[in-house]
Amino acid sequence: MSTPWPSASLVSIDVEPGGRTSPFGYIGIAEIIGNAVEDSWLVKFRSPHYGWPATSVNPTPRFIEVWPYVDAFIGERLTAAYGYSYDIKQLVRLLNLEKLPIRPIPVVNGLALARSLWPAAGSLQTVVLGLNLLTRDELSAVYDTRPSTQPANKWLLHDAEDDALANARLFLHAAGGGFDVDSIITAHKLHVRYLTPT
To answer: What phi and psi values does residue 20 have, to the nearest 5 degrees?
Structure first.
């Protein structure tokens, strides 16, 4: 079966849109190429949900300014999000608020993959621990960098970048060797959804 995306690559995303009381939004991105996470990063933007004053001089770019770069980076690749309904909905809302075009980006659900691998799967943090997606040394390093006041549900996965990276590791774990996203989709009976205008 031929798919419109390269099977040896995947872009994992996590969307935190900001809101009326949260002036900033974030998109976490982690890129799988071959058998490894090539890179991950956090994109911060001024949320269009927040009532920014017309005279605001905040240097953080607006969503309308960062999205073209993120969209170009995704290109024709398949994306993955953990609990993808939320991420798709928020991304479409952001695009609509900024009156940006919505193209049919394909998205596969990391939560469905996690439940296929481990039926007790719930939060992404629980999945990371339950499936041993981080080594003991990586867990120790994460623990040492988190403040003791961090909420219990955020001590491991702190932000959108951490979530995107953990989701990417979940897909690598499912590959069990040579990464082929099409084989993962078939083996775990995953569904691909596309961004569509609402």
So the answer is: -65, -30
CA 53 to chain CA centroid, Å, is 30
Residues 67-93 pLDDT 10s: 999 999 999 999 999 999 999 999 999
Cβ(131)–Cβ(117) below 8 Å: yes
Phi–psi pair at 39, nearest 5 degrees:
-165, 160
Query: CB–CB of 111/101 below 8 Å?
Result: no
**Rounded to whole angstroms, what are the CA distances from 81 to 54, 77, 165?**
33, 13, 10
Measured CA to CA, the distance from residue 140 to residue 134 in angstroms comes to 10
Q: Torsion over CA of 135, 138, 139 and 145, rounded to 10 degrees?
A: 180
Whether the full predicted model's pTM is greater than 0.85, yes or no, is yes
Q: How far apart are CA 64 and CA 45, in angstroms?
A: 9
From 24, 62, 36, 8, select the one nearest 160 (Cα to Cα): 24
Is the distance from CB of 37 to CB of 103 less than 8 angstroms? no
Query: How confident is the model at residue 61, as a pLDDT?
Result: 92
What is the CATH number that goes with domain 9-194?
3.30.420.10
Domain extents for the chain? 9-194
Give the tokens for residue 95.
């695009």
